[in-house]
Amino acid sequence: MASNILEKYGIKEVADFVMYEIDANGKPGKPVLYLDTLKVSTAEFNSESKEATGGKGNATLISWDSNKEITLTLEDALFSPKSLSIMLGASLAEIQAGKIKKTVTFVGDKANTTTFGLPKVWEGSNGVKFNIPTTIEVFDASGKKVTTPLSATNIETGETYFATFEVGVSALIMDITASQFPGTYYMTGDTYTRDQKTGKDSFFQLVIPKAKIVSEDAQLQMEADGDPSTFQMKAKVLKSGEAGGQGMIQLIKYDVTDAVASDSAAAKIWTQK
Q1: Cβ-Cβ contacts under 8 Å for 178 (sequence gap 6 or more)
Q2: What is the distance between the alpha carbons of residues 186 and 21, in angstroms, rounded to a whole number?
Q3: Quick one: how far is CA 87 from the chain centroid?
Q4: pLDDT (tens digit, 9 = 90+) per residue, 146-174?
Q5: Structural domain spans, the chain
Q6: Looking at domain 9-47+67-90+176-272, does it have CATH number 1.10.40?
Q7: Looking at the DSSP assignment, which residues form a beta bridge with residue 167?
């Protein structure tokens, strides 16, 4: 595919990204994350410039560029346990017989000599029901512990109380520790470019051989009002660790020449070194 200096393309669509483990040779291994619900995918390029100035007016005579930095920002409309674990540098573990602590409120009722206001079954906001066990701790609004089992002598009608207990669960646990941090991955991003002359779309891929997920400024936002939360992941693009590799990003505009994608796909490659 020959390059034409008069060719112009537009990009409007977000890219779908895939993250891969990096093997001992710097090559992509198994895929670990597929992101196809991104709202924004941005590659930001920065560098520093040093200049020699002099003469009348102290004009710039020579300029040197250095310290190239490329930052990739991915903003996802949705999250998965895997995407959060990669973003936060956390481990994932499944358990079939675990316990979590729950606290519910109830209003005391001396007239109800069976439960004294504490229901036997509690329904959460998501419609999930669970049995309240007999082994519980009860506290009044001031934080004073109430003797159990409940009775007419230690419960006041109309007063609010807090019941704390454990519930049996099967769960997926994400463990965020002080010693674990996000890793480094091989990444590809696929989108489309549109030809200004023909209005036709072509395939476009970003290839990042080595990207370190950045842990600073990571957020998990939960709020009652406004738009749904988005999940932002940032990666710092590193120099490739592949043997002989110097590039940081390849931008590939390509046309698949076979009905099934193969090595015969014609491609135009721009390499960011």
Answers
A1: none
A2: 6
A3: 5
A4: 999 899 999 999 999 999 999 888 889 99
A5: 9-47+67-90+176-272, 93-175
A6: no
A7: 100
